[in-house]
Structures are given as structure tokens and as C-alpha cells.
Design a protein that fits this description.
Distance between the termini: 29 Å
CATH architecture: Roll
CATH class: Alpha Beta
Shape: elongated
Radius of gyration: 18 Å
Helix content: 40-55%
Number of helices: 6
């Protein structure tokens, strides 16, 4: 079973963050330059929430707000379910489906250590399935050949 910690080990170290007063336009430029779909919103090293492309689409574009005048703090997603490095990728998938979210903050002893995305969880699932398929093929070939 793949854990959140294992998923994080495969990702670049560190969390890309902005302050609540960062304009949405600046946050989007950071996301584009890093080829990511979210940034963490932090103030004085305290986690406040996550700003996602979905937040932008629903809370800026559809509300006819200005990307340069709206701040990350105004539209960030808050109260997301939190996971820890020992949680399984299956439990993360369940949380994401239950809460209709694509990103989960990962905390270890109360400290933010990373973010996992739906894509990360899907990749872990695919890797696990490949291992299972390989084991089944070995079993079949060794017992029925």
C-alpha cells in the first residue's frame, strides 16, 4: 500500500506558497511558471488555505472580479481535509471524492510538509495496479504453465 509519505518522496521538495495579500494574478503567474495547479496560502509560516485554478475559475472569472485586484486570501479554499504521511493513497482518494477536492494538505506533527493532488493519488493507484498485475502474471505462469 502506497502512503502519502511515499508520494511526497517522489515530488520536488518544498511547498510553493503566497501570502493572503498576494494578488490572484501574481499567484496564477507563479502557478504557470511552476506548472502547478495550486499554491499554499501562508502568513508568517502559518498555513491558511490553498488557492487552486478551480478557485480562480469559480470565484474570480465567474464572479466577474479583477484578477489583479482580488487577493489570494479572498478566494482560497479553507477547511480542507488534512492528511499525514502515514495515510494511504486509498484513504486520500476517498477524502477527495467525499469532499469534492483535488488537493490535500499534508501535515506531520502539525507542520505542513506538502500538498498531494488527485494526479498524485491516481499515479500511486496505477503503480499499485501494475505491481498487482505483475504478481498475478507470475503466479499464473508459475502455477499453470
Amino acid at each position: 500500500m502506497s502512503s502519502v509519505g511515499t508520494i511526497l518522496q517522489k515530488k520536488p521538495r518544498g511547498v510553493i506558497s503566497v501570502t493572503p495579500s498576494t494578488s490572484v494574478l501574481d499567484a496564477l503567474q507563479i502557478m504557470a511558471s511552476k506548472n502547478i495547479g495550486s499554491v499554499v496560502v501562508m502568513e508568517d509560516s502559518a498555513y491558511l488555505g490553498i488557492l487552486t485554478e478551480r478557485d480562480y475559475a469559480r470565484k474570480v472569472i465567474l464572479q466577474h472580479k479583477s484578477s489583479s485586484e482580488t487577493t489570494a486570501g479572498e478566494i482560497m479554499s479553507t477547511n480542507l481535509p488534512r492528511v499525514n504521511p502515514s495515510d494511504s493513497h486509498e484513504s486520500c482518494m476517498s477524502l477527495m471524492v467525499e469532499h469534492n477536492v483535488r488537493y490535500l494538505p499534508v501535515f506531520d506533527d502539525g507542520v505542513l510538509v506538502g500538498i498531494i493532488s488527485l494526479i498524485d493519488v491516481i499515479q500511486a493507484t496505477v503503480e499499485k495496479q501494475k505491481v498487482t498485475i505483475g504478481e498475478l502474471q507470475n503466479f499464473i505462469s508459475s502455477n499453470f504453465a
